[in-house]
Amino acid sequence: VVIQSYMNSQKTATAEYKRVESPAKNQPSVLLLGARIRNHENEVVSVLDAQRSFTIELDYRVTSKTLAWIGFAISTTDGAYVLSAADGDVDTYALVPRELGVYTSVCYIPDGLFNAQEYLLTLYAARTVGGGTEILDFLENVIAFKIENPSGVGNYMPKRRVGVISPRLDWEMKSE
Q: What is the pLDDT of residues 85-98, one digit of tens each?
């Protein structure tokens, strides 16, 4: 765990990952090919403004027809998981077998969700088997990215807010 934390802390921000494919004989039924992070202007970047939405794109190849989902997990550089999501969260994608081919699944992340700090992106392809989850492919911490919050929630404070999320929440002030 200490070594992994050190390795994670040594990652530099990289907005895109492309897998170097080897001619493996036993490829999984879904093979992850790469990923990238795009800002609100559709540019591939490793530094994002917390007050702007962004997307995470996951490239993969289906090598044999199967029910599967493609997903990611975002963690802090010290290993705390912040968020995980999969395209199988959409019933249409979860309930229809994936045909052979190369695909890109895109996840839309809303503005104002993350606090300013560095994060790591892990990718996975999985499917449900007998009530359990089978991991088809897994790529840990392949992208490092940073969220900056120059004009967002709490920017008037001398130090950033604690926590990994920093959404703008609705408040109401009442008096008696």
A: 999 999 888 889 99
CA–CA separation, 53 vs 79, rounded Å? 24
- What are the pLDDT digits (tens) for 137-168? 999 999 999 998 755 556 556 566 677 777 77
Contacts of 116 by beta carbon, 8 Å cutoff, 6+ apart? 50, 147, 148, 149, 152, 160, 166
Residue 171 CA from chain centroid, whole number: 29
| The token pair that represents 142 in the structure block | 């392949």
Measured in degrees and rounded to the nearest 5, phi and psi for residue 25 equal -80, -35
Per-residue model confidence (pLDDT) at position 70: 96
b/e per residue 90-122 (b: at least 16 CB within 10 A): eeebeeeebeeeeeebebebebbbbbbbbbbbb
CA–CA dist 26, 31 (Å, integer) = 11
Q: Which two tokens stand for residue 105?
A: 């699944």
How far is 53 from 113, CA to CA, in rounded Å?
A: 9
C-alpha–C-alpha distance, residues 74 and 118, integer Å: 10
Dist. CA 84–CA 73, nearest whole Å: 4
Q: Give the type of residue at 102.
A: V
